Amino acid sequence: MKEILKTHDTFPKLLVRNAEVFGDRKVAMREKEFGIWQEFSWKEYHDHVKYFSLGMVSLGLKTGDKVAIIGDNRPEWVWGEVAAQAAGAVPLGLYQDSTLKEVSYIIDHSDASFVVAEDQEQVDKILDMKEQLPKVRYIIYSDPRGMRGYKQPFLLDFKEVENFGRELEQRDPELFAKNVASAKYEDLAFICYTSGTTGFPKGAMLSFRNFLSMAANLMEVDNKFEKDEFVSFLPLAWIGEQMMCLSSALITGFTVNFPEKPETVQENIREIGPTIMFSPPRIWENMTSTVQVKVMDASALKRRMFHWALPVGYAYADAVFGKEVIPASLRLRYRLAYALVFRALKDRLGLLRIRSASTGGAALGPDVFKFFNAMGVNLKQIYGQTEISGISCIHREGDINFDSVGKPIPETEIRLSDSGEILSRSPSVFIGYYKNSEETEKTLSDGWLHSGDAGYFTEDGHLVVIDRVKDVMHLNDSTRFSPQFIENKLKFSPYIKECVCLGNRRDFIAAMICIDYPNVGKWAEGRRLSYTTYTDHAAKPEVLELLAKEVEKVNATLPEATRVKKFVPLYKELDADDDELTRTRKVRRAFVGERYKHVIEGVYAGEEAIPIDATIKYQDGKTSRIRTTLGVRNL
Amino acid sequence: MPLLRIDDIHLSFGGVKAINGVSINVEKGSIHAIIGPNGAGKTSIFNCISSVYKPQRGAVYFEDRKVTGMKPDHVTHLGIARTFQNIALFHHMTVLDNLMLGRHQFLKRGILAGGIFLGPARTEEIENRKAVEDIIDFLEIENIRKKTVGTLAYGLRKRVELGRALALKPKLLLLDEPMAGMNLEEKEDMARFIIDINEEWGVTILLIEHDLGVVMDISHRVSVLDFGVKISEGAPAEVANDPRVIKAYIGEDDDFLRDMEAR
């Protein structure tokens, strides 16, 4: 793999190469539209990039300019990115569900002069803030739906820009090749804005070297092939998706598939049957809870089969990962369980053809992890951060440890600081944060990338990540515990969507829990329990009892000192729009602690019930006042 | 020349006079709303347009052709499609099948050719599916394409019904209370779709609606009925200030007044 990089060391160069090698014979991308998987060959991919790139050049895009891209996963997103790079400009991605405030902050901070927006929804966000964004010169949209009434001269259709590119090519046929050739390995390739659990987003500057060396090093231990199929459904602004859809796909030439709509992802995954997958924990957690709920709905026979097969799967997976000799009887039972249950289950989830699946971005509970491995899905844990182009550690084939994140990939050194912080060094470590040298220095002091994660190495060289250094908590009796670890265990319950553990400098651990509305709804339906809204439902005494049982189950697996002693169900779900979660759905502890201060104080003051009088904001901007009482449950 | 001309129609059921001499002109390319208290005769007018009822006096003309007296399916062929107050879909069929069925009038091949499914019959099916997929894309119902209609939420069914009417490629679309029973978000979506159908697809729209906020926002022209008589007509702002209209609504619907004051 590394051979290619000697001659083709940027994304545009790799694209040109793939167009030469594969031409029209191999599918580079598929996008489902009008109910059919529409295909784009490598040649077509190349041509779109070429003309769009030249089109932007003819509109005045220059080397070093920034191009912001926002929208759902579609080919135009990727074309726009590579086109900007081919023109010597620097692309950056925005999360498609970002609020106005976030969008304008990032566009302004990045000095973007071009914005490639998917559709009317995204264009409107930028138009709303246009006055605060004087640096933006053009907004280019790829879906003309609903745009007929917009007459602003700086709004252009993606296809129109491609036509400008065709005209420029007529006048200067060599320009594209010249532009592509002038880019270098060390050049800035992409600015990856990280949502961050604190403060404003930071723009991590990554070079082609960062991206490509990481992808190539990862492939040495987790190979990808030309024939692989990948479904792209996570935000393209996220480093993980960049690594798969851009660097890995360009190096190997595998096919990237874009779903029809965010709502059809599960269905589309099943249609494609991907062979490789890389998703953050919530995707795997969702699948697990879907399975659990579907099982509850299944016929008695199927239910019994499932409950017989699962322990067999767990035993088998444990034996494999413990590198034990598997007794013949277990082997036989597993085969039967696979044939009867797991195969069908995998098929339903669209995971039947998976060769390599990985999870990363946050910690995945060991239970979910085991669940997939029991089913025969080769799920591996990875570890890394945006600042190291995504991945620095991964489980090796046949060397999986449920609690660890595996071993460093080639060319990557990892060590622990005196305080137990994980530090890493590799060719993939980023250049720095855009326009933020203070943070850059902090993160890159003495040549090592400071992750902010606390961890340790096991005897066989696996890295174990405990939690964020600043998130590790201490009880008053100085017991150390990781809230995330407990939260992940709790979230394995199909009835718990999100939860926040408390207890830093307190006497005991307590938890705030958000119910999984659909699943608890289903449970209530089975018991003919009526409810009106989320708030009402979460406050039902029956639901409190249901949750108590779930928490007790988790407590049984925890050491006495770190058990959850009290919990309270919240009246609303935590939401990224309310700044309670990051866009990648990590809890912003400081913010949540401040916002629910009143609840937390109540819990620790030993109150039985906490009155709530709050204002909540709906997605359409309307607000409404909620008055309810939260019941605190002791365990 | 108006696209649709309702010319002095009278309709009574026994002693009850449902429509008592109503004339309305619907201009091509417009969104025209009919409002009025319950029992004012709004739906009866729709039934006269689609020729389900035959008015005792007067007639309805579409593109200057007399519609009154035609068979209802004939009227459909002329290019008039409608949706109903209480959704008319096949509840045990999928969304896709319901929409494909909406294309039935474009199916020219016989049962035999269709059964063998070769040559022209196949081409025809593909063309129809393309048209239906355009509608699915337009209404953003890709994720429920293969779901059974009966399992869908009310707001979605309304959307599917709109799709079924669009599948007929109408020149005139009659919408009977498209927003009834919807929540705010669904109403906003529906209003958006109606405007898009009108502006992007160039379909003339005649709608009956009780949500006056929506009517005033999206219509170009409004006709007000009361007890089978047209009491007012004009641009939304004119109608809203017409004392006869206000009088017709007093005691019947306080919301109207409040709505108007808020404007």
What does this 3D model show about the protein?
The complex is a heterodimer of chains A (635) and B (263). Chain A is an alpha/beta fold and 635 residues long. Chain A has 3 domains: 2-275, Rossmann fold, CATH 3.40.50.12780; 286-352 and 354-360 and 368-470, ANL, N-terminal domain (Rossmann fold); 472-634, ANL, C-terminal domain (GMP Synthetase, Chain A, domain 3, 2-Layer Sandwich). Chain A contains 22 helices and 29 strands. In chain A, the strands form 8 sheets. Chain A has a 5-stranded parallel sheet, sandwiched between helices. Chain A has a 5-stranded mixed sheet with strand order 12-13-14-15-16, with helices on both faces. A 4-stranded mixed sheet of chain A has the order 2-1-11-10, sandwiched between helices. In chain A, helix 9 (208-221) packs across helix 10 (239-252) and helix 13 (300-321) crosses helix 15 (366-375). Chain A is globular. The model of chain A has no long low-confidence stretch (mean pLDDT 91). Chain B is of the alpha/beta class and 263 residues long. Chain B has 2 domains: 1-73 and 172-181 and 203-263, P-loop containing nucleotide triphosphate hydrolases (Rossmann fold); 80-169, P-loop containing nucleotide triphosphate hydrolases (Rossmann fold). Chain B is 41% helix and 23% strand. Chain B is built from 11 helices and 10 strands. A 6-stranded mixed sheet of chain B has the order 6-7-8-3-9-10, sandwiched between helices. The two termini of chain B are 33 Å apart. Classes of the chains: A alpha/beta (635), B alpha/beta (263).
